[in-house]
């Protein structure tokens, strides 16, 4: 057996705000129905981070503190924190720096990754490479988004989809082969027109005009994104299985990005996986962008066993998409 270092996931944690926004609440805000939202997306409710002066770091930091408690380590032992987000506290500095400060990870360096709904998989792949290099022993990979900060609650085509949450995991070296086994990541900037925030960047800085035109909110051409997502997420997951000589039978769990139940179903079907092997919590949290995948791992942690093979898959703005093969490193909690 080779003693190549792999990056094992050794703990996972999540954070969801208490306040719920249900489909019935949305019926009172925009022209929609609970039935339409449930059948088109699978969503029933989402969580919203309320309160003055609260940003994404206020969800990632408690998730990170809880992660350290679960693993029985001090935040000071962490060497690096990578935060995937499209709703950073500020354009700069990086939210990861603020998280490190708030959680007492004073010896860690931190940076953000911007890859929308695939951000967590991109960050995980980078974190794994850092561990595999042998140079780092404790890397935290987090995904967090306060989507309510960029949702236009007068636009019924987007406001029904998104919620706020954060999740994170700890990567440590394993010599037994557990952890991140393979990762297939893709991006295509031709998709940038279909899902974006139009203003606030260097191309179109904030102005009275951009505010009046509501250009600081999510803009999405849902149907187009849907079409690309169904194909992209299923294709990349199937390709990952194929290049690792695996079939759906070898996979214990599919951990899909939670954007739309119909996209998740199409991916599972393509991989030959029955519904019992698919983690789904979109009904309770909606699309939390970079947080969906760690949030699923956190909620299903009890049921995971050492040696289980998991496929993590995502598709999102950019376009970005990808799939990661993981061999789970521990039993239950
Ligand atoms: O995570 C990032 C990646 N994002 C995604 O993967 C999202 C991908 N897109 C989707 O999930 C879906 O496109 C949506 C859930 C956003 C929309 O579902 P759809 O089946 O594609 O609906 P649609 O946009 O084609 O709209 C169908 C109809 C339209 O009316 P007409 O033109 O047929 O008269 C919409 O105006 O439904 C209408 N509609 C609504 N009706 C009630 C759109 N939003 C709503 C709403 N309530 N909230």
Describe this structure in words.
The chain has 333 residues and is an alpha/beta fold. The chain folds into two domains: 6-177, Peroxisomal Thiolase, Chain A, domain 1; 181-327, Thiolase/Chalcone synthase (Peroxisomal Thiolase, Chain A, domain 1), CATH 3.40.47. The chain is 31% helix and 25% strand. It contains ten helices and 13 strands. The chain has helices at 23-27, 34-41, 57-71, 95-103, 119-132, 208-212, 222-243, 261-271, 282-285, 292-300, and strands at residues 6-15, 19-22, 45-48, 80-84, 109-113, 139-146, 164-174, 179-187, 195-197, 218-220, 253-256, 309-316, 320-327. The strands form four sheets. Strands 1-7-6-4-5 form a five-stranded mixed beta sheet, sandwiched between helices. A four-stranded mixed beta sheet has the order 8-13-12-11, sandwiched between helices. A hairpin with a 3-residue loop joins strand 12 (309-316) and strand 13. Helix 3 packs across helix 4. It is globular. The model has no long low-confidence stretch (mean pLDDT 97). Bound molecules: oxa(dethia)-CoA. The site of oxa(dethia)-CoA has 19 residues, from helix 2 and helix 7.
């Amino acid at each position: 057996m080779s003693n190549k270092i792999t990056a094992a996931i050794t703990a996972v944690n999540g954070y969801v705000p208490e306040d719920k926004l249900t489909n019935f609440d949305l019926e009172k805000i925009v022209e929609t129905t609970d039935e339409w939202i449930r059948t088109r997306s699978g969503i029933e409710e989402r969580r919203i981070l309320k309160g003055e002066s609260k940003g994404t770091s206020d969800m990632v930091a408690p998730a990170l503190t809880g992660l350290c408690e679960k693993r029985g380590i001090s935040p000071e032992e962490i060497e690096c924190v990578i935060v995937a987000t499209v709703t950073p506290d500020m354009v700069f500095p990086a939210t990861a720096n603020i998280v490190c400060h708030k959680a007492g990870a004073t010896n860690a360096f931190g940076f953000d990754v911007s890859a929308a709904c695939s951000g967590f998989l991109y960050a995980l792949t980078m974190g794994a490479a850092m561990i595999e290099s042998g140079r780092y022993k404790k890397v935290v990979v987090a995904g967090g988004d306060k989507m309510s900060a960029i949702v236009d609650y007068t636009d019924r085509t987007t406001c029904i989809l998104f919620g706020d949450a954060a999740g994170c995991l700890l990567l440590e070296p394993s010599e037994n082969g557990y952890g991140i086994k393979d990762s297939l990541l893709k991006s295509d900037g031709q998709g940038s027109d279909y899902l974006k925030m139009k203003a606030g960047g260097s191309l179109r800085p904030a102005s009275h005009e951009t505010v009046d035109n509501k250009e600081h909110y999510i803009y999405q051409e849902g149907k187009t994104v849907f079409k690309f997502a169904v194909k992209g997420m299923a294709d990349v997951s199937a390709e990952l299985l194929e290049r690792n000589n695996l079939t759906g039978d070898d996979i214990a769990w599919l951990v899909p990005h939670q954007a739309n139940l119909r996209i998740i179903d199409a991916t599972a079907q393509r991989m030959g996986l029955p519904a019992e092997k698919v983690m789904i919590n979109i009904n309770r949290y909606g699309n939390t962008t970079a947080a969906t995948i760690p949030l699923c791992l956190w909620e299903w942690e009890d049921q995971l066993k050492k040696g289980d093979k998991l496929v993590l898959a995502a598709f999102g703005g950019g376009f970005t998409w990808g799939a990661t093969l993981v061999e789970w490193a521990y039993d239950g909690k």
